[in-house]
Design a protein that fits this description.
The complex is a heterodimer of chains A (about 160) and B (about 110). Chain A is of the alpha+beta class. Chain A has helices at about 20-30, 35-60, 100-105, 115-120, 145-155; strands at about 5-15, 65-75, 80-85, 125-130, 135-140. Chain A is globular and about 40 Å long. In chain B, helix 2 links the parallel strand 3 (about 45-55) and strand 4. In chain B, strands 1-2-3-4-5 form a five-stranded mixed beta sheet, sandwiched between helices. The chains are: A alpha+beta (about 160), B alpha/beta (about 110). The interface of A and B includes residues 16, 17, 23 and 56 of A.
Chain lengths: ~160, ~110
């Protein structure tokens, strides 16, 4: 298993007015470790969506002072963002990925965040422990996964 | 830090909302209020110009989803214009170009009303 070379952490009160701070933090780290600007944009947006879900759904309004943790781990092949909260749990299996055409046709509001996170990142996984913590882990590889698979196939074929 | 701003320009037949800054879950209510005000005044031919918009999340896109049906039922539309490639990519990722008219320039949008 790849060892973590660097780790960056941010803890902020779970409020929407901290989303800009979270984006700056994540964006700067992604930029620093060498992602292209369009990839940095994707990482920032995916993290914003994950944190917005925490603020809007995991904590009730009166719990707004509770904290939201964003950790970024870097190893030689990928960047991993881990968003942790200690609010209301949800069952990630119950989240149905919208079929966008039908979704748009129905003009439903909201619920686009999880769809976007999966589109923007290479991997999205949840670790839900009711009453303990909720964690979403999102991974972006330094080399596009499909490209690296293609490279591997080429090498294997030789 | 530069946050979010929405500027309204009314013409006889249509209204333009020029949005700038960062549109996320924190600032989306400002855009929601601006569109709600237009709807309340029966102004349903709306162009949203994104020239100065630096960032949009799904909370921002959700605002358009929230009003489009009502506005079209009133005989109007929400047309979108002047997106930077970064903003367009987010709309495109969610398939919005199939549901909304998106133009390079607000004048093109005006002609379509």
């Amino acid at each position: 298993m790849a060892s973590t070379k660097h780790e960056f952490r941010l803890r902020v009160p779970s409020r929407t007015d901290n989303l800009d701070l979270i984006r700056i933090f994540v964006g700067k780290v992604a930029e620093k470790v060498g992602f292209r600007s369009d990839e940095v944009d994707k990482i920032e947006l995916a993290c914003d969506e994950a944190c917005t879900n925490v603020v809007k759904h995991a904590y009730k309004r009166e719990e707004a002072a509770k904290s939201l943790d964003v950790a970024i781990k870097i190893d030689y092949q990928k960047l991993t963002i881990i968003v942790t909260d200690h609010g209301k749990s949800f069952d990630p299996g119950s989240v149905i990925m919208p079929k966008m055409k039908e979704y748009l046709a129905e003009l439903r509001v909201g619920g686009l965040g999880i769809y976007l996170m999966r589109k923007l990142m290479d991997e999205v996984n949840y670790d839900i422990q009711p009453g303990v913590k909720n964690q979403v882990k999102m991974v972006k590889y330094f080399i596009d996964k499909q490209n690296s698979n293609s490279i591997k196939k080429i090498k294997d074929a030789k | 830090m530069e946050n979010f701003a929405v500027q309204r320009v009314d013409n006889v037949a249509y209204s333009i909302l020029k949005v700038g800054g960062f549109l996320d879950a924190h600032t989306a209510p400002q855009l929601e209020d601006a569109i709600q005000n237009l709807v309340d005044e029966n102004r349903c031919k709306i162009i949203v110009s994104f020239t100065d918009l630096k960032y949009i999340s799904s909370a921002g896109l959700g605002v358009f989803m929230g009003f489009i049906e009502q506005v079209r039922n009133m005989g109007g539309d929400i047309k979108l214009s002047n997106m930077t490639p970064k903003i367009f990519r987010v709309f495109d990722l969610l398939g919005f170009p199939t549901l909304y008219d998106i133009f390079d320039d607000e004048h093109e949008a005006i002609e379509k009303f």
